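job 3f2a | input accepted
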Amino acid sequence: MKNLFKRLPTFSADYSGVCNAIQHMRCLIILHGQGGCIGGVSTCDDFEKEKNEERILFTKISEIDTVTGNDRKILNQIVLDSQEIEHDFIVIAGSPIPMLIGTDWKAWVRELEEATGKPVIAMNTKGFLTYEHGEKAVFLELEKKFSKPAKKENRVNIIGDTCLSGWTEDRRTNLKSNLQREYDKVISWNDNAGIEELQKMCSASINIVASVSALSTVRKLEEDYGIPYMIAEEELKEIKGMEVFNKTGSILLVGEQVIMNQYRKQFRKNGYTGRISVCNFFEMNPEWMEEGDCRLEGEDDYIKYLKEQEGYEYIVGDSLLEQFGGYQKEFINVPQIALSGRLLNDR
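job 3f2a | predicted structure (347 res):
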């Protein structure tokens, strides 16, 4: 049965993608649903939550409120919380329960904007898609809500540098430092961006794509406002354990496409001449794929892919993938939070 996982955990859901994509922005995040549906965000996916947890709230709707459709109680609580927590705007993400009871998100936005005087974005996430769909959707909504024509400046927007897409604080800092040599203002949407920075997004002279999730948004900004974009480039740290690699050996990189493509480019720059392939359990842009690259639907796809490729000498990926074999010499662990979660990574 397709997507029946026997050895891998459930992948991070679309509402986790929304929360992670905006968790460092100056916004109030409301995750609407029951505890069982949304608990995974805080226990597994929200890897950097400690820095910003005061601005992420969970409604934990009760069974009675679910059955009776008592939205008023929740809306009143959101208004009260918004008065106590500093923020520039509000983002609400849905889960399976709001989908089942047919929550009227347009009405929520209208009432909350009137009551709080702040911009409100409602994301109709359902928990049935993986995290990158949530990230992509919220980036597009931010563009729709806040973009407007602006005079061009020597400024750059970095979009998509989220922890679920493999970006760490060190990696973001290095990328920003490199860009600051060329641009007067470097704005990472994942680094405390507020409404002022978002309203000036169209003043950028270029946008940086830090993950596949950002691609639709930067293409929209290019189409509507003529802002070009480029893929994030950063001198990545050496992967721990890669000193065992034979430079003519075959390597499989499993992870987010932008980062893994950057590793592949760096390996080749360092003299690796063997076959280097990239695959991912999450969305991949076909234009960035090379022969042998693969978008995987699930663990059965991964097993089939390894057999078709007749294995690799080295595999770089999340430690949960080591159990599937497919490597002849070494498996190098590079955690992927969207696949294994923060608990395994912490351990």
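job 3f2a | The first strand starts at residue 27 and ends at 31.
job 3f2a | closed
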